[in-house]
Each structure stands twice: as C-alpha cells, then as structure tokens.
Protein 1
Amino acid sequence: MYKSPRGTVDILPEEQKYWRFIEKKAVEVSRLYGFERLDTPVFEDAQLFTRSIGEGTDIVTKEMYLFRDQSGNDLALRPEGTAPVCRSYVEHGMDNRVQPVKLYYFAAIFRYERPQAGRYRQHYQFGFEAIGEIAPSLDAEVIDMAWRLYESLGLKGLSLQLNSIGCRQCRPGYIEHLRTYYKEHVDRLCPDCKNRLEKNTLRLLDCKKTTCQEIADAAPKSSEHLCDECGTHFESVKDKMKILRLPFHVNHRLVRGLDYYTKTVFEIQPPEEGSQSAIGGGGRYDNLIEEIGGKPTPAVGFASGMERIILNLKRQNVNVPEVSTPVIFIAHMGDEARGKAVQLAADLRRNDVPVLTAHSDKSLKAQLRQANNLSVRYTAIIGEDEIKNNAVTLRDMSTSDQRTVPVNKLIELLVEG
Ligand code: HAM
C-alpha cells in the first residue's frame, strides 16, 4: 500500500476548516496593511536559493530538494518564499512601482528535515514582503501585521522576540568578537557547534543543547556591536513598536537560520515551546535583491507556517468556523421519485442551495441514516404521495419533525435560510 512520502501529509476534508479560517484572516489582514497577492512557481533555479539563503546554512547544505530537468537545468523545490518574491520583483521591474511594494503569498515549502510535530518536509507558509523602503517604521508595521494576524486568529500567550544582527559594515567585527569568545569555550561546545565555529559563527547562538545555551547566554551581544546606522535603526524600530504597544523582548540569541538578514530579526513563539518551534519569523534583508542581480533595495518581511498555526489553534482549543456543508439531503422511494429528486436537486442548486441526494436504492430508513451522518439540517423525502401533490415531506433532522411542503415553497424556505 502506498503512503504519502515521509514528512508530508494529506489535508483531509475535516482539517480544511482550519486552513480556510487562516487563509481568510490572512487575506483580511493583508488588505488592512495594503499587501497584494503574488504567486511564484513551486520550483526555481537552484542558485537563487544557494546565493540568497547562504551556502553554509542547514537549508542549503542538507535540506534542499534538488533536481536536474531534461534540459539540464539545476532546479530546487522552493525551500522558502522570500527569494522567489525578490526574483519576481527584479524580473518584473517592480522598482518602477510605488515603493514599498507590498506582496503576500501562500506557498508550499520543501525542506528535507527530520519530521516531528509541526515540522514537515512539505509545509505551507503564509508570508509577506515589503520591498523598497529602509524606514524602521516599516519593520514595525510588518511585525505589527504578524502580531495582528495571530491576534485575529484568537491565539493567546505568544511571545515576540526581537534582535538586530547588524549589516555588512558592522557584522564582521561582531562575528570576530563572537569567535574569540567561543574559542575560549570550545571544549564545552557540542560537535555541531565546534564545526560551525569558523564557518557559521552566528548560528552558535541558537544551538538548542543546554551547555551551548549557557555559553550563548553570556556571549557578546550583536546589539552592542552595531554601527551607528544600525544602532539608530534598531532604537527607532523599538520606539515604533512601543507606540504600537507590541509586547516584545529583545533576545540577544535570536539570529535566524537564513543568511540574508540584516538589522532587524524577529520571531514569534507559542507559549509551550522553546526556541525550536517558532510559529513565525522574519526580518529585514537589505542586500538580498542586490545579491540576486537587482539594484540595491532594502526590504523586510515575515512568514508563518500554516501547520504550526493550526497546531496552536488546536492546543488552545480555538473555535474555528465550520466549512459550510449541504443543508439538505433528498431521499426518494421508487424510480419515478428518483427522477423527481434529480430534478429538485438541480433546481435547488440553481438557486444556490447546497444539496446532496441519495444515489443507490436503499430503504428510506437507510437513506435517513445516511442524511444523519452527513449532518444536514433537513431531509426532503419524495414518495408516491409527494409526487402526486408536487410536494416533499420535509424532515428537520435535529427534531425529527416532519411536514409537507410544496416544491415551490421549499425553494423559498431554503433560499431564505
Ligand atoms: P523560516 O523561519 O525558515 O523563515 O520559516 C518561517 C516559518 O515557517 C517558521 O516560523 C515555521 O512556522 C514554518 N516552518 C519552517 N520550517 C518548517 C517545517 N519544516 N515544517 C513546518 N513549518 C515550518 C523563512 O522561511 C523566511 N522566508 C521568512 C521571511 C519572510 N523572512 C523575511 N520574509
């Protein structure tokens, strides 16, 4: 028997209400902040990701789904959504539009990770990017939008972590400080951290091992080694966040797993989990567009995993609206009644009433059981008498009350709800 590939899941009909709920809220919040939807392909030139996410990152070294097509192009299934949006911005000359260009997306994302709760090899992200503006108020606006999304979904107890990791000018100096510090503690580092020490020093700060965390806690802080420009920017982002009443904590160990970030980085954590399972994260990436061949263009964005949002909606027992299901089931007895049922179903659907009918020759009792299992509000029963009177027997499934309703009145009754 075939199963879905490891780390992937089918989103079954009973799960769909969560997805539709989040999509609806995400579209609403996008409208409030002036973001427009962009859809990019599921696969891109592999180099787009290696160059932007960074050669030394886990995503690029271990997690990309790479393939060569029949023409010899090296492609990758999208392991994140920001680089494709930037590629599209450059390709379509969006620098000629009013800046910042604000774009949002729902995208399937592919990472060859070790599957566990909230971690998949194919997951979906809702993300948004504001491109073409350096002002710190835009960072705050993006963070505010992320926060507002979770608030509108009814999630509680989230924490908002903020940091600044500087820019091309000040980060190398900071990394030198960090490396010097870590070299003094190298004996106590886990094997992964020992390996990262030279190539990916910043990532030592977010190692999850207890001893490494202790070392990281006392490490030099990036926010204390910022150049003037980054320092002023960070202060201004915090000011704007205070105006917006966003309850943030500066987390000196927050560095994010992608190399393209500059200045502001942030993550939103659910109540029960450690830093391993952010519900969403983002930040500023002022060099990315230039690195992939565009003009120097500052930008800031955010993305949240849909599955992680759902995990938290379920944990917090958030009431999610049901996806609307058919209100009426048509049961019939005999061949002539079956013809009438087909006709009535068509008439109801033409009047926008969602309807289901029995298709097999089951007893009335079995048809009513079927209707009950489908959770419809009514069943319309058609038999010989009903055909004669051009009516149906309408059964209210919650009370089992039955009454005769002429067909023309039935449509009126259901259309009015
Ligand atoms: P990221 O932190 O790698 O950032 O992913 C964003 C979110 O996607 C995470 O916070 C998490 O909710 C979800 N996520 C990541 N990996 C998985 C997985 N394997 N299974 C389930 N959910 C996952 C980015 O991808 C950046 N592009 C965000 C961004 C947008 N930065 C600026 N603009």
Protein 2
Amino acid sequence: MTNQTSSVEDRQARALRSLNRLVEVSLFLNSSLSTEEILTQLMDASAEILHAESASVILMDQNTHELHFVAMPTGSAQAEQLVRIPVPLEGSIAGYIIKENKPIVLDDVSQDPRHYRNTDDQSGFRTRSLLGVPMRIKDRVVGALEAVNKIGDHWESDDQNYLEILASQAAIALEKAELVVQLQKANVELSQLDKLKNDFIAIASHELRTPLGVILGYASFLKDEAQGELGDHADAVLNSALKMRNLIEDMTNLRFLKIRDSELQRDEVSLSGLLQLVRGDIFAMVSANDQTFNIVPPEPDVVIYADRALLLMTLTNIVNNAVKFTPQEGHIQIKVIDRPQEVWICVVDDGIGIPHSELANIFRPFYQVEDHMTRRHGGMGLGLSIAKAVAEAHRGRIWAESAGKDQGATFTLSLPKGWV
Ligand code: ADP
C-alpha cells in the first residue's frame, strides 16, 4: 500500500467518523429540551468533529441584542461549569459573524484586532486559531458557533461545512428549549394568577355572605311583621337580597365549571331527600314571589351514587331560574321520572319561556337570552353552564325544552342509575 493510498483511506475514515458523530449529535439536539445540555453537547461535538481544542457559542439576546460568550473550560464535561461572559457586538469577531451573517476563518487570531482578549482572560484559555459560523433560524441570526485552536494543521474546507450543519441544528434546538422555558414560565404565572383569582373570589364571597345573612334575616322578619307600604318595602329588600345571594353563589361556584368525574365526592343520594333540601333552599324566594311550588317525588324513592352537595347546588340553581323567570303567582314543579337506565329530574315552570333558537345557547358560560344592558332579571349567566359541567362529570345530561315565549320551560337533568 502506497503512502498516498493510506492517506486517502485515513481521510475517508476520518470523514466517516465525523459524519457518524454528526448524526449522533443531530439526534440528541432534536430530542433535548435543556439549553445547558444542548450547549454542552454542541461544543463537545464541534471540537471533536473539527479536531479543535475547544468550541464556544456566542448567543445574542433577541431583545437587548447583547452578546454572551458561552464556553466549556478545557477538561470540563459538566454543563453547570459553563462560563458566560458578555462580549461587545461592535469590534469583536463574534459581533462580526453575527452582524455580517458570514463565517470567518482565522489561522492566527493574535493578528486580528477584533479578537476580544477578555474572554480568554476570564475563561483561562488562549485562542490561537478560530473558525466561526453564524447560528441562524431562517434569516434571523441568533448567535455564532466557534471552533477554537485547530489541532495540528490549518482549518480544512469540510470543517466549515460541518460547523454550519451543527450551528443550524443547534439554533433550532436552542430556540425550541427557550420556547419551552417561556411556556413553563407562562404556565406558572397563569396558575399563580388563577389561584389569586380563586382566593379573591373565595374571600370576597365569604365576606359578602356575612352581612347579607343579616339583611336577609331582618328583611324576612320585617316582611312577616310589617303591613301595607312597609310590607312592600320589606318585600323589595328581601327580593334584592335574595338576588344578591344568588350572584354570590354563582361567583363561588365558578370553580365547578371545570369539574371532573375524579373530583366528585360520590355518595348514596336519596332523590326524595335531596328534593326536600332543594325546597328548603328556595322556600324564601318562592314565598316572596307568591308562587306555588310542588315536588312530585319518585315512588318508590330512587337512590343514586352522586355528589350530593353539587347536585343540590345544581338543582337549586335550576329551580332558582324557574322562580326568577316565572311571574308572581306562577307555578313551579319538580318531578322525577324513573327510567330503566337513568333517572330524570324535571323542573317545570309556566314562566316567560325560551325561544327555540336559544335552547342550546343558554348552556354556554355567561350566555343570557336577554341583552345584558336591558335585562330585567339579575344573574351572571353561569348557572346553567355549571349545571351542564356537573351533569357531565356525573356522565349525565341536561337539556331545556320550551314551546316559546310565555309558554314556560322545562329543564331536565338526566343522571345514570347504578354505580358508575
Ligand atoms: P343566569 O340565570 O344567571 O342568567 P343561567 O346560566 O342560569 O344564568 O341561565 C342562562 C339564561 O337562560 C338566563 O339568563 C335565561 O335567559 C335563560 N333561562 C334559564 N332558565 C330559564 C327559565 N326557567 N325560563 C326562561 N329562561 C331561562
């Protein structure tokens, strides 16, 4: 074998090793989401493939346009030992590569006035030769990748190709990692905000409830005792206080809009018992409106496996609506229909009714049939969307029926029987 043949074979073997390493590091860059890991692997692979003593990355802050030199000191393989040193954009080699968006090949760095010695001093490294390429995402330059101190000969033509491939893959990997960090940060901020909102609602509704209890108590007492005009005034106070109580309930119940099956506190619930609790909850409102209210309980009683507190809240809400949207002296009824697989709890009223086109819309959060500015009835438009969430968490359904304006409405909550 001649010397010439063996040197060609050597070159081929080296190229093959480099390509293998390039594939290996590409796979890693594609899968890693840690900036430090990406940088460490990138510099490691760049130095190895280009047969250089070291490699460094200079990253540009996209907002401030400040450059930061990131390097792995010789002999260190630990990501946490990476050094980061600020580099001027003007007059430095890295600044040139980034601003001009061009590679640079220097066999003797000491002859180049753009060499920023500070980085050598701080990283304890002496730069003799350098090959640097821009790191780009499409046309945007995000930094530079530099291989430093070629071992043995001069930089070779393939070196630049290899470094450019590594730089473009790393740029995308770094951007991806940065986006993940931002996303995680935004997620944490969002959950903090959400907690703040929930705490605020919980505290505000609790603080509002105490004085409201006093108002409700005295207004009921006055309504019972007072006659004539004073009695009418007491009625008005009681009505307004009851509306306010419903608003506070809606605020408190906002968190149930996202209730899931796994969060339910299921227990054996007797429907007859539950309906008596509903009666207790809405009694004051019904009598303030002189409406008739009756319950047709299931015969025999039906027991379901459900979240008692949430079902009570849901049914109370539906009956509250029936009371609210039914004129004085109107009729409201709850009846239970026991079916083979499910039980239907129907709330029937002879109130203002619902146009056919709105029957599905009213289950959307904050949706109200009447325009918000001109509406006569209070409320936040949340009750039915919470009722739907509670029904679905129980694997049940809820729907509304109405023959139209002034024809009354029927709301049916269907819940599966048995141990779902
Ligand atoms: P809110 O009662 O606070 O407005 P809901 O989500 O409970 O919110 O109800 C949404 C809308 O559905 C109401 O604003 C009303 O337009 C309509 N609605 C609900 N129940 C009835 C009912 N029994 N009769 C007529 N309309 C109703």
